[in-house]
Amino acid sequence: MVESRVLRFAGHAYFRQRLVLATLAGRPVRIDRIRPDDEEPGIRDFEAGFLRLLEKVTNGSTVEISYTGTSVYYRPGVVAGGAVTHDCGTSRGIGYFFEWLVVLAPFARNEFVLTLKGITSIPGDPGVDTLRTVTLPHLALFMPLEQVSMLASSLELRVVKRGAAPGGGGEIFFRAPLVAALRPLDFVDAGRIRKIRGIASAVRVSPQMSNRMIDAARSVLNRYIPDLYLFSDVYRGDESGRSPGYALSLVATSTTGAMHSAEQVSQPGTAPEDIGLAAARLLLDAIQRGGCVDRSHQPMVLTLMALGPEDVARCRMGPLSPNAVQCLRDIRDTLGVVFKLKSVPDSEDVLVSCVGAGFRGLRKVT
């Protein structure tokens, strides 16, 4: 019976997703055939770092890694939370570690007080500006903050230091309140885009770099909407990390609170104007896809819907990404929650609904 509870997966894809779902379900998981045919088989240093971070925020977890590193066995413990500091290294950005760990925050025994150090903006991982302006509002959709006492901390993410690739040196601070239970989501009206905001960050380069990104993005977005504000955020000295770099993060918000985001990060030989133009075009593409949830946040929202109370949760989404489709399968295997998908007439959107599993946090209601 114990062996039948073990979740079994293969491959390195969706590594974090499966570990977090197994932690929430309280079921051990075994992941085999991790890059068996690669020149360097087995897990990478950032995947090992994510395992170490999971051990820090839980109590009683055990991890067994095979000699070749191609097999991982993880037995989760209780989500303890508390004050945790973790160095994310320089292989991946802080967003790689944060975007799935944030799902555990409402179910911790103690309030999450998390400090992550590493690269704040890197291609391929969400930057800290996107985490703060898009990821946290998506999490807040499920948190009944009106039930939290006035003495409890608010949901916040603060950028202490910025750090560009490859040297890093950035740091963020995250705090999340405890809740007794999530609230069911009913988000089916995407509304119309009413404003666009953006942050152009620059570290260890001329402040003109951020202004050039803003001017390039404005040349595209001004033709779309008048309510457009792009801010320049330049860090100097000890707060600017170890490497030069610049990035642009954009967020479009609708009349009903739906958010769509886009981000571009500098690479060697890339002009600031190219960053601004690419980010603006990516944002317009995200808006065109429609839905109430940003495409990159579909798996997170689906997971929180499945963890909600035993009530119907509904959300309108644009075309589901491959990550979201796989997340639906993993949720079914780990939590036993099955989603109903219904196409929305005259659009490519999908109405996603489910009955939550009824997960409850460890905060006591008085």
From TrEMBL:
Domain RNA 3'-terminal phosphate cyclase: residue ranges: 8-340
Single GO molecular function: RNA endonuclease activity
Cellular component, GO annotation: nucleolus
Gene Ontology biological process: endonucleolytic cleavage of tricistronic rRNA transcript (SSU-rRNA, 5.8S rRNA, LSU-rRNA)
Domain RNA 3'-terminal phosphate cyclase insert: 189-288
Alphabetical keyword list: Nucleus, Ribosome biogenesis
Localization terms from the record: Nucleus, Nucleolus
Family of this protein: Belongs to the RNA 3'-terminal cyclase family. Type 2 subfamily.
Name the UniProt record assigns to this protein: RNA 3'-terminal phosphate cyclase-like protein
High-level lineage: Eukaryota, Fungi, Dikarya, Basidiomycota, Ustilaginomycotina
